[in-house]
C-alpha cells in the first residue's frame, strides 16, 4: 500500500479520473461532516485504488489508513459506506483524530467503465 503524503498541488478527483481511464478500480472518500477541530474541511477527498494506493486526504493523516482499508472493501463489494471517527466513539483507541473533533466520511465506489 502506498502511503505517500498528498502533494499540495494534487487534485484527488483528477487522479480518480486518470486512474479509472487506466483501468484501475477506485473509491472516493469525501468528508461529509465535521465537528470540533477536524483537520480537513467538508468536501475534502481521498481517492483509493484496489491495491491501496491513494491520493488526497480526509484527515491530515489521522485516519487515512482506516479509510483506505474500508475503501478496499467498498471497491470489492461495490457498496458505499459512511465512516465516523472521533475521540468520543469506540474507535478512539484504535484510530482517532489526535487533534480532537469528529469527522464523517462517505466512501463510494467508482466504476472504471469496463
From TrEMBL:
<dbReference type="Pfam" id="PF02625">
    <property type="entry name" value="XdhC_CoxI"/>
</dbReference>
<feature type="domain" description="XdhC- CoxI">
    <location>
        <begin position="19"/>
        <end position="86"/>
    </location>
</feature>
<dbReference type="InterPro" id="IPR052698">
    <property type="entry name" value="MoCofactor_Util/Proc"/>
</dbReference>
<protein>
    <submittedName>
        <fullName>Putative sulfurylase small subunit (Molybdopterin cytosine dinucleotide biosynthesis)</fullName>
    </submittedName>
</protein>
<dbReference type="InterPro" id="IPR003777">
    <property type="entry name" value="XdhC_CoxI"/>
</dbReference>
Amino acid at each position: 500500500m502506498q502511503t505517500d503524503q498528498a502533494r499540495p498541488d494534487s487534485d484527488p478527483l483528477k487522479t480518480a479520473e486518470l486512474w479509472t481511464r487506466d483501468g484501475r478500480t477506485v473509491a472516493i472518500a469525501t468528508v461529509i461532516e465535521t465537528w470540533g477541530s477536524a483537520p480537513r474541511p467538508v468536501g475534502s477527498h481521498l481517492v483509493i485504488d484496489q491495491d491501496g494506493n491513494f491520493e488526497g486526504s480526509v484527515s491530515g493523516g489521522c485516519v487515512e489508513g482506516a479509510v483506505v482499508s474500508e475503501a478496499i472493501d467498498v471497491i470489492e463489494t461495490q457498496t458505499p459506506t459512511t465512516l465516523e471517527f472521533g475521540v468520543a466513539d469506540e474507535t478512539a483507541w484504535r484510530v482517532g483524530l489526535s487533534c480532537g473533533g469528529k469527522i464523517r466520511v462517505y466512501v463510494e465506489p467508482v466504476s472504471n467503465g469496463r
